Amino acid sequence: MEKSSGVIRKIIHIDMDAFYASVEQRDNPDYRGKPIAVGGSPTGRGVVATASYEARKFGVRSAMSSRKAMQLCPHIIFVYPRFEAYKTASRSIREIFQRYTDIIEPLSLDEAFLDVTSDKQNIGSALEIAQQIKKAIKSELNLTASAGVSTNKFVAKIASDINKPDGLTFIGPSKIEKFINNLPVEKFFGVGKVTADKMKSMNLFTGADLKKLTEDELVKRFGKTGYFYYKIVRGIDEREVQTHRETKSLGAEDTFMYDLDTIEEMHKELDRIGITVVNRLNKSQLAGRTVTLKIKYSDFTQITRNHSFSNPVSDLETITDTAKQLLGKVDLEEKTVRLLGISLSNFGESEIRSRRYGDPEQLRLFDEY
User: Site described as Substrate discrimination, positions (predicted)?
Assistant: First the structure.
């Protein structure tokens, strides 16, 4: 249980359901009930930003290439993004939140944490507030949201994803331990496919399995993240809902099951990591002037290299090409790599919509057609 000044906190995580695609289906009757992808193109270029639930049934997912999406769902409809419409809907959602609390931490246009420990309307029940918010979003905006309710951010966020779409999951104080014990390791924050596979190779499949390890054992096996795992498997998450979050940098990294020793393997991993970075930039509506490459060698020594542009960038081609160029300037002779990461920083204009579509040479995440 998380407490603030002796009071058990009441945290709600709201996550809109297939947000961009749902806005498009709401505004265009021809798209309703059909598999659509926001972003990408029928030419096979670009990546999917959001797929409707009809498309997800075929396996189409965010950050997937258009070509792959068409292979899985030949009749998919590609829709050119309308960020102004998404921003307008997001502002309306935020206004609904503000009826209940001012302690709101937006994570992107389509999700946010709310601290309703003390709510404006004196409702007292976080579950009731979440129900009212969902109902207002549906009746006023004709969109659906999923909500997770608990005493800390970690559990609330995972809970919101359990019964999507249009779900509501409450994990009360007495249920947290059992909930985390049964949670698959891949559901834990920061556990990607490689780390999950590593855990499973150690016969660590659930939170209960991780809980058997001491803090020192977790740190030895997973580095500094082990400190986080030790706390979170015990339901401890002391992070507060932050009303003012200035993003300094945004990126992704991965530790590999086997050390990489060829440039081809490293380029392949950078392509994969780059897709994750671009998807996160897209969700946060950010573009950065500085691309940073992070490398950790098998001996655990770590270096970073960066390159800055005169204008913000956010497209996949520029980001991955820059990372590969930075990698090419590093001495890799007789060295193997256990981790690679790409991040963007030095953010300029927070709205990248005009840049993304105004300069086809610079930004090519979504291709016009």
Answer: 20
Report DSSP state, residue 206: B
Q: How far apart are the C-alpha atoms of 280 and 249, rounded to whole Å?
A: 11
- High-pLDDT (> 70) share of the chain, %: 91
CA distance 245 to 52: 29
Binding residues for Mg(2+): 15, 110
Annotated binding site: 15, 110
How far apart, in whole angstroms, are the C-alpha atoms of residue 208 and residue 260?
31
Q: 46 is written with which tokens? A: 């670009």
* pLDDT value of position 28: 97
List of domains in the chain: 3-17+83-171 (3.30.70.270), 19-79 (3.40.1170.60), 182-232 (1.10.150.20), 249-358 (3.30.1490.100)
The pTM of this model reads: 0.69
Residues catalogued as catalytic: 111
Q: Exposed/middle/buried for 132, CB within 10 Å: 0-12, 13-18, 19+? A: middle
